[in-house]
Specification:
alpha/beta
Length: 193
């Protein structure tokens, strides 16, 4: 399984990268499958572009999107808590749909808008969950088309947040701290009612 972001990427380059990596299904994991700026990535337009080159489209934003409709998934400051999302039945059904697709022989790329997966729920929610709960390593297709594993991305989070292991916090604790800091910085916040 892969992920890919589209921000600032022309649709032909996006499709070229998907085909290069052998993807045949795009799973849209945006809670809102539209773009204010990149109209080629509106749900209907994206589906049509993909179909023209023989790629399938499936919408999984309800299950795997970062903007939960359940208020129990938010903290007191109205920020979504990815650990709560991961534990939800709806999220787990989305993960099962991914696994069912892979079992059927599909090569799936989850798509969202963010250019860098390190600031996106593709890695902070889905990638983290797949790796740490299901022992599945995602491959993130970067903006230039190269691949970054979820493990490499998590190491990059430690650099990005300035988190280093020490005598009190070993490698795993430092990684957890870096992850929490990145989620705090990047996870969706509900607008005031």
């Amino acid at each position: 399984m892969f992920t890919i972001g589209y921000a600032t990427k022309p649709i032909d380059r996006y499709i070229e990268q998907l085909l290069y990596h052998g993807v045949n299904v795009v799973a849209d994991v945006r809670s809102v499958p539209y773009s204010k700026v990149f109209h080629d990535y509106h749900q209907e337009a994206l589906r049509q572009h993909l179909q023209q080159v023989g790629l399938r489209y499936v919408y999984l934003g309800e299950e795997l999107g970062p903007r939960s409709k359940d208020r129990a998934h938010y903290d007191d400051s109205s920020q979504v808590q990815f650990d709560r999302l991961m534990a939800s039945t709806l999220y787990q059904s989305g993960v099962q749909r991914l696994f069912d697709g892979v079992d059927k022989g599909f090569s799936i790329a989850m798509t969202c808008a963010c250019k860098d997966p390190a600031i996106c729920h593709r890695s902070l929610l889905i990638g983290w969950s797949l790796k740490h709960q299901y022992n599945v390593e995602l491959q993130h297709i970067t903006h230039d088309g190269s691949l970054e594993t979820q493990s490499a991305l998590e190491q990059r989070l430690m650099t990005m947040t300035g988190t280093v292991p020490d005598l009190l916090a070993g490698d795993e604790a430092a990684l957890q701290l870096a992850y929490q800091q990145q989620c705090q910085a990047c996870a969706y916040r509900r607008p005031p009612d």
